[in-house]
Amino acid sequence: MNPDAATIAAGAPIEVDLTPIAEGQDIKVFWRGKPIYISHRTKKQIEEAQKVSLSSLPDPQPDSARVKAGHDQWLVVIGICTHLGCIPIAHEGSYDGFFCPCHGSVYDTSGRIRSGPAPSNLPVPPYTFVSDTKIQIG
Questions:
Q1: What is the CATH number of the domain that holds 71?
Q2: Is residue 74 part of a domain?
């Protein structure tokens, strides 16, 4: 017995199979009516996100606080710009992260704001790893 579409839209947890997401690829799913980006980060993207000086960030947060321990390759963020609620584009902008074309906010591969009018990082939704290849959001 699975919940109906109205229950899922109201906030029931969703499971996402990570197996088909290639390294360097992003997918977008919806949870509670919000777009969720799931990024399978490359080694280079992870290293770049980890070496950023926190003092250079408008909303300082280490990469390790934005991913699950042992699963650094997976970034899960709510894809809503923290400026005015637009939907940023993945793999765009100066940091190969996310770019909001509406007003120019640029986020890095950890979803942290790097430049533009957005006041804070892309939020990380509540999620857990059910297995090495599956997450539950919510």
A1: 2.102.10.10
A2: yes
Each residue's pLDDT tens digit, 66-105: 999 999 999 999 999 999 999 999 999 999 999 999 999 9
Q: Is it the case that residue 9 has pLDDT exceeding 80?
A: no
- For the chain, list the strands marked E by DSSP: 14-17, 26-31, 34-40, 74-78, 89-92, 97-100, 105-107, 113-115, 127-131, 134-137
* Single-letter residue type at 51: K
Q: Check residue 124 and report its DSSP letter.
A: P
Residue 6 resides in a domain: no
The closest of 96, 87, 38, 30 to 67, measured between CA atoms, is: 38
In the residue annotation, 103 being an active-site residue is answered as yes
Strand segments (E) across 34-119? 34-40, 74-78, 89-92, 97-100, 105-107, 113-115
**Per-chain mean pLDDT for the chain:** 94
- The single residue of 40, 83, 91, 103 carrying the catalytic annotation is 103
Q: Which domain holds residue 119?
A: 22-137
Q: Is residue 2 assigned to a domain?
A: no
Total number of domains constituting the chain: 1
